[in-house]
Write a structure and sequence with these properties.
The protein is built from ten helices and 18 strands. With 301 residues, the chain is of the alpha/beta class.
């Protein structure tokens, strides 16, 4: 049975708090696990969330600030200690290659698993599998940063009333799906486009074209909202978003489920992030993330 869900491992920005670990997010996408921005403490959070090293297939780092990457050393060593039986691909800004190298080889350990380094240096597709295309878009932050987007290919949804009208039934339904036509009836005659699902991960950034491109039409958008709206000046200065800005992006992009995260330790009331997001006009499903939360990807439209 396929599972598509986000497992939130940490939600703090800059420094951990008593209730929030540094960043860390695992996306389960059918049989694959994609780990985003493993900050310090990610290995322990994985244990608490029931995530094993064997669950990982890709690691995607948006940028090389410590709260988004210091956990790489421990995660990579755990992958090797547990002798994960499949290769792992790591994506990260090419400009941070020296940081990735230092973290990958921070201490001595025995390498048992092949980790393919696939650095990012431009917008566009990074990988294509049978289940999705992984894309990147450049963001606006004091250090080079990229957001990531997963797009499932469109499929076809069979329509029972049209199948019946054309007399297609039983094993012939499978045949027309495989062969695209049967006895003069085309697949288009008895089905409609089933839009593929879309997921985006947007961390440290000001508002920019990349943010909107990543969010467009997403079923699930995970996006930073480091500051509340009254501190917008600080957000712009430090290269971050406010709750209202993130919500307006989601509203304008037609996002179905918005997940706010990466909160500054200056705030003590998480409900205020939801209030400001709603005040900004976002009407879809909204989650203010907390550590160890699981968020399912919405069912197809």
């Amino acid at each position: 049975m396929s599972v598509r869900e986000l497992v939130v491992l940490g939600t703090a920005s800059q420094v951990p708090t008593r209730h929030r670990n540094h960043n860390g997010y695992l996306l389960r996408w059918d049989g694959e696990g994609i780990l985003f921005d493993p900050g310090e403490g990610t290995q322990r959070q994985m244990l608490r969330a029931g995530v094993a090293a064997h669950d990982l297939h890709r690691i995607c780092v948006t940028h090389f600030h410590g709260d988004h990457s210091l956990g790489l050393a421990g995660v990579i060593q755990r992958i090797n200690l547990d002798k994960v039986p499949h290769g792992i691909t790591a994506h990260y800004p090419r400009s941070g290659q020296r940081f990735f190298d230092r973290l990958r080889y921070a201490t001595a350990y025995r390498e048992t698993v092949g980790i393919t380094e696939a650095p990012v240096d431009a917008d566009g597709p990074l990988a294509r599998t049978g289940g999705y295309t992984l894309e990147a878009r450049k963001l606006s932050h004091p250090v080079e940063s990229y957001g990531y987007r997963i797009v499932e290919p469109d499929g076809r949804r069979m329509l029972p009333e049209r199948l019946a009208a054309h007399g297609v039934k039983g094993p012939d339904v499978g045949r027309i799906q495989r062969e695209a036509s049967l006895g003069g009836v085309t697949l288009e005659d008895v089905s409609e486009v089933r839009r593929g699902q879309r997921f985006a991960f947007v961390m440290d950034t000001r508002l920019c074209d990349g943010v909107y491109a990543l969010a467009e039409g997403c079923d699930l958008l995970v996006i930073e909202s480091t500051f509340l709206d009254e501190d917008e000046r600080l957000a712009v200065e430090h290269g971050h978003l406010t709750a209202g800005q993130a919500a307006r992006v989601a509203r304008d992009a037609g996002v179905r489920h918005l997940v706010l995260t990466h909160f500054s330790q200056r705030y003590t009331d998480p409900d205020e992030f939801e209030r400001q997001a709603r005040a900004a006009g976002y009407e879809g499903e909204l989650t203010v993330a907390h550590d160890l939360l699981r968020v399912p990807v919405p069912k197809r439209r």
